[in-house]
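Hello,

Following up on my earlier ticket. Below are the two sequence lines again, exactly as submitted.
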Amino acid sequence: MRIAILLYPGFTTLDATGPYEIISRLPGAETVFTAKEAGPVRNDQGNLALVADRPLTEVTDPDIVVVPGTGDWEPVLRDRETLDWLRAADATSTWTTSVCTGSLILAAAGLLRGRRATSHWLALDLLKEYGAEPTGERVVTDGKYVTAAGVSSGIDMGLSLVGRIAGDRHAQSVQLLTEYDPQPPYDAGSPDKAPAEIVAFWREEMRRTT
Amino acid sequence: MRIAILLYPGFTTLDATGPYEIISRLPGAETVFTAKEAGPVRNDQGNLALVADRPLTEVTDPDIVVVPGTGDWEPVLRDRETLDWLRAADATSTWTTSVCTGSLILAAAGLLRGRRATSHWLALDLLKEYGAEPTGERVVTDGKYVTAAGVSSGIDMGLSLVGRIAGDRHAQSVQLLTEYDPQPPYDAGSPDKAPAEIVAFWREEMRRTT
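Thanks for your patience. The regenerated structure is below:
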């Protein structure tokens, strides 16, 4: 079970490392972080780099592809080499997945046309521009395409994938070992639950900056 | 608000990146990943390296210290340079924190003597050997020491810290932006909730390997 996790400058850390921590515990998993060039790839905040151990050219035929998101998606949506690699990887993958605005990258590669998909709540509408059908669910599966909502949702996606691939018992083991028994001290994790003025503030920020 | 996240060979990825993704969004946060030597530090699984941007010697007086855990804690518990740095950083920190078996490292540095603390459920008993008082809660605060349970619990700890430092409103904003509205597809994230035979299996594994 070969797992390829895509890195590119400006990726959001937890989008990549959340599902990584879960699905890399699949039986027989061989997980590789990959980017256009091997070496450190700096994240959206600029204060952390993850190392891509292999360049895209050396990562062929993965069984699972994971595409993290970013708050600055324009550069990667225009990056032909990354989109070409994604299409080639998708041609043979069993599961093609994304977290957060990673779904915009899948969509820009033409992989979500006519498919139900999700994204960060602030970016849902943008999915339509690439012919996907946005939905507000936390994890959306349409055929072999699994998209997750914002940032932290990749953990739920990962656990759901582990269950489908290796069975409930293995998924429960992974959940127990990662002690994934979430107890958030607030209940503001979605636009339906957060105080309305906070939601409105960020919608306005989004309008202002994009 | 200077945040130092400790890296060492064999750290568990999500222990470090979970709280990172949350607390690095504190107002005015300056976050640095640090290790004995600057450069890539490989994780427990060996298939991912995070870059420590600065050596421990250059990271002095952090306001918040975060210590991730590992499944192989013996080397770091014996590492005098890391423990010395931790004691020095703790001497001036506002918050000294850990995720998972990171609390064993805090305890080995002598920082949890007589304090209530938590750890990965499989390692709770070990805390006693260093004079801490283990408790099964997910996030435990005793004075300025905040310890979190296994792996994923660092996200809850991070959000709790953001609330204490920057107020509920800011914490709710961070929760909304990271879409932390967890919906695990299973309910096996703690030894109280997981099927008994899975818990027994891992307890036996723990006995066999330590």
